Amino acid sequence: MAIGISYIISLLILFGIYAIFALGLNLEWGFTGILNFGHVAFFGIGAYSTVILNQMGVPIYIAIVAGIIIAGLFGVLVALPAMRLRGDYFAIVTIGFSEIVRYFMLNEEWLTGGPLGLRDFDIPLSFVPSQYYNIAMLILVLALLALTYLILKALINSPWGRVLKSIREDEDVSKALGKNVFRYKIQSIALGSAIAGLAGILLAFNHKYLNPNYYMPLITFYAWIIVILGGSGNNKGTILGALIFWTFMSLTRFSPGYLPISSTDLGALRMVIIGLLLIVLMMYKPEGLLGNKEELKLDI
Amino acid sequence: MIQQLIFGIVTGSIIALGAIGLSMIYDILDLVNFAHGDFMTLGAYLTFLFNVSLNLNLILAAALGIILTGVISLILDKIMWKKLRDKGAGSITLLITAIGLALVIRNLIVFQWGGSNVGFDLPLSQNLNFHGIMISTSGVLTVVVAALLMIALDLILRKTKIGKAMRALSDNKNLARITGINVDNIILWTWGIGTSFAAVGGVLYGLNTVIRPDMGWFLLLPIFAAVILGGIGNPYGAMVGGLIIGISQEMSTIILPSSYKIAVSFVILILVMLIKPEGIFGEK
Amino acid sequence: MDTILSVKNLKKTFDGITAVDGCTLDVEKGTITGLIGPNGAGKTTLFNIITGFYKPDSGEIVFKNKKIDQLPTYKITHQGLVRTFQITKALNRMKVIENLMLSPKKQTGESLIWPIFNPKKVGKEEEEIRDKAMELLEFFDLMELKDEYAGALSGGQKKLLELARALMTDPDMILLDEVFAGVNPTLSNKLLDYIKELRDDGVTFFLIEHDIPLVMEACQEVYVMSEGKVIAKGEPEEIKNDQKVLDAYLGVVHEG
Ligand SMILES: Nc1ncnc2c1ncn2[C@@H]1O[C@H](COP(=O)(O)OP(=O)(O)OP(=O)(O)O)[C@@H](O)[C@H]1O
Ligand SMILES: [Mg+2]
C-alpha cells in the first residue's frame, strides 16, 4: 500500500511537470500557431542554467528565477532569426536547435558535466523531512502548475491573448489591424520557453540529477501529444492530456511484473502505441478530446 | 584532408539518397516527412532480416528489403496518407502524423530486433590503401551504387512519361491538375521511388557502419539540410545538397570534435534558410 | 483640396509579371474615390503595396504628408490607413465580437504586463471597446451572430465583418477591396449610406469595385487601371464615356 501511494505521488509529480511543460507549448502552438519542435531545448536550458548557477554559488531560489529567465531569453534568441521562416522551416530549425543544445550538453564537459551530467546541487524544500519530501515536491509542483495555468488564463483572455489568436488564425489580418506580429510571436515564444524552463528545473529537482539524455527530441513530442490529446488551444485540455499521458506511461511502466515481456520491449511497445495514438488523433479527431469540433473543423 | 573528403563523399552519397525522396515527397505531397529517416532504418533492418535471419545472400536480401520498404510505403499511402489528403488535411496535420509514424516504425524495429547494433553478414570489408589514404570496399560500393541510382533517376525523370509528369506536377501544381495528369499515380511513384532510395541509403549506411534503430533519425537532420540546400522538389539539388552536407560534416572534424558533425549540417541549414530559402539552385 | 494619399510612379514585378507599372495617383481628403479596371489590372496589388504587404520595386507613397512606402504594415495602420481584403480573411476560430475587439489601436491590455498587473484598467477599456463593437454589430445586422465563430458566417457576412473590423481602428482613410461584392442590395445601399456619412465626418475612402453603377453613384472621382497603369481619371460621367476605358474593358491593347 505504501508503495502504491508513493508511486502515485511520483506519477502525479511527473504529470504536473509535463503539464507545465505542455502549457508552454500550447501557448506557442495552440494560441499563436507557432510550430515549435524544439521545446525540449528550453526544458534543458532552464534546468542546466539553474543547476550550473547554483553550483557556482548562486542561492538556489535566485538560480531558479535566473534559469527561467535564461530559458526565455534563449527562446528569443532562436526566434529572432528563425521567426522570419515559414512554419515548416521553423519546425525543422527548432528541432535542430534542440539537438545542438543536447550535443553541447554532451560535449562541453567543463560546463555541463558531459554524458555523466550534473549532480550535487541544492534542492528547494530541503528543510522537509525526507519521508515527506515527495509530498512536499508534489504540492510545490501542483501549486506552480496552478499558478502557470492562472497566469496563462488571464493572459489568453486579455487583449494580448486576442492578438495571439488572431496571429494563429491569419497574421495578415493582425498586421492590417496594426499589430506588430513579430513582436507578439517573440513574446509568445519567450513566455512559452520560460514556462518550459520552469518545468525543466522542477524535473531536475525531482531527479536530483541532470543528464543530456533527458532532453531527446522525443520529449518535445511528448508535449505535442499532450497538447493535441487535450485539444490545441485549450489549457484545461492540455492538463487533462498530461494526466492521461502519464497515467498511460506509468501503467505500462508498472506492468512488467504482470506481462511476459521485457522492459525494453515494453518501452518500445509503449512508444508504438503513442505513435499510433498520434496518427489516429490526426486522422479522426484532430480537435483532441476536449477540443471543440465546430471550432477546429474550420482549420488545420 | 583527402581522407576526410573521401569519407565525406561516402556519407554524402547516403544523405543524398535520403534527400532525393524527402525532397520529392515534400514537394508533391506537401508532406514534411519526419518518418523518412525511419524508412532508411526499416530498409536496413528488412535487409538484415533476409540476410541474417533467413540466410539469403546479401544482394538478394537487399533487393527484397528495399522493395518491401517501398511496398510498405505504398500501403501506408493507401491506409493513411490518402485518407488525410481526401479530408483536405493541412501540411501541419500531415507533419504531426509523420512524427507519429516515425515513432511507430522506429519502436516496432526496437520491439522486433532490440535496441542494440546489428550488422549484415558479409565478408570482412577490405580497406584499400592508396599511399596512406584508406578507402573501404563498402565505401566504394556506396558511391558507385548511389551514382548509378542517380543516373537512373535522371533517366526516369527525363525520358519516361511518369517522370515527365512528375516534373510537370512539381513545376506547377494547378496546371498539371488541369491538364489531366493522373496525380494519384504520380503520388504512388513518388512514394515508391522516394522510399526505396531511402532504403538503399539505409542499407549502404549499414554496410559502412552498423545498423541501429535510431540511425535514420540521426540521418534525418542532415538530410533536411541537404533538401533545403538543394531546393525543395529539386532531386538534382538534393543530390548536390547531400554531397555538400556530407563533405562539410566530415571536413568539420578537422577543426571540431566529431560529435558536432550534425551540428555543422544544421548551421548550414539555418544559414541557407535565412539567406537563400529557395535553395542554392532555386530562383526567387 | 487636400491630398491625403499620393502615389508616384509605383512599380512592382512578380517573377516576370509587372503587376503595377508606374502607377501615379492622388486621393483627396474626405472623398470617396473609386478604382476600377479589368481583372488582373493590378488594383489589389496596388492596395497591397500601399498598405505595406509588398515592398514596391520603385516609386513613392505619401500619406498625410508622410512617406510610408518603407513602413511595415502595422505602422501604416497606426498612421490611420487601413484596408480590407478582397478575399475575406475572417479570423475563423475567434468569435465575431472578438474579431471586432481586436482592432482598436494602443490597447493597454495588449502588452504582456498589464493584463496581470492592472486588470482593472484593462477591464474598463475592454468595456469601452465592447460597446463600440456592439454599435457596429448592430449597424451591420450582425448582433445575433456576435458569439458565433467568424468561420461560420456566410460570404456576405464576412465582408461586413471585415469592413466593421477596419472601422474599429478609427481610420482616417480606408481602402476597400470589392467590399460590396456578395452583399445583398438592401444592405449594400445601407452600407453605402453609412460610408457617405463617415465621409461627411472626414473619413476618406478609396474603393475597388466592379459594380460600375455603384461606383458612379458613390464616387466623386474615379481612377481606371489597366495593365498596372492608370489609364484614366475623372468624374464618373467623364470616365463612362472615355474611349480608352471602354477599350481596356473590352481587352483592346492600348499603346502609350
Ligand atoms: N503575389 C503574387 N505573385 C505573383 N503574381 C501576382 C501576385 N499578386 C498579383 N499577381 C499578379 O499581378 C497581376 C495583378 O493582379 P491583381 O490581383 O492586382 O489584379 P486586380 O486588378 O486586383 O484583379 P481583380 O479585379 O481580378 O481582383 C495579376 O496578373 C496577378 O496574377
Ligand atoms: Mg483584386
TrEMBL record, chain B:
Recorded GO MF terms: L-isoleucine transmembrane transporter activity; L-leucine transmembrane transporter activity; L-phenylalanine transmembrane transporter activity; L-valine transmembrane transporter activity
Protein topology in the membrane: Multi-pass membrane protein
Keyword presence, Cell inner membrane: yes
Membrane-spanning parts: 5-26, 46-76, 88-113, 133-157, 186-207, 219-247, 254-275
InterPro entries cross-referenced by the UniProt entry: ABC_transp_permease, BCAA_transport_permease
Keywords: Amino-acid transport, Cell inner membrane, Cell membrane, Membrane, Transmembrane, Transmembrane helix, Transport
One GO CC term, this protein: plasma membrane
Matching Pfam families: BPD_transp_2
GO BP terms in the entry: D-alanine transmembrane transport; L-alanine transport; L-isoleucine import across plasma membrane
Main location, first listed in the record: membrane
Cellular localisation: Cell membrane
Family note: Belongs to the binding-protein-dependent transport system permease family. LivHM subfamily.
Protein name (Swiss-Prot/TrEMBL): Branched-chain amino acid ABC-type transport system, permease component IlvH
Automatic annotation (TrEMBL), chain C:
A Pfam family recorded for this sequence: ABC_tran
Gene3D superfamilies the UniProt entry points to: P-loop containing nucleotide triphosphate hydrolases
Residue ranges of the TM segments: none
Family membership: Belongs to the ABC transporter superfamily.
Alphabetical GO biological process terms: amino acid transport
Function of the molecule: Probable component of a branched-chain amino-acid transport system.
GO CC term, one of those recorded: plasma membrane
Species this chain originates from: Methanohalarchaeum thermophilum
Swiss-Prot/TrEMBL keywords: Amino-acid transport, ATP-binding, Nucleotide-binding, Transport
Alphabetized CDD domains for the sequence: ABC_Mj1267_LivG_branched
Annotated GO MF terms: ATP binding; ATP hydrolysis activity
Stated name of the protein: Probable branched-chain amino acid transport ATP-binding protein LivG
Residues in ABC transporter domain copies: 5-252
Manganese found in the keyword field: no
InterPro entries: AAA+_ATPase, ABC_AA/LPS_Transport, ABC_transporter-like_ATP-bd, ABC_transporter-like_CS, BCA_ABC_TP_C, P-loop_NTPase
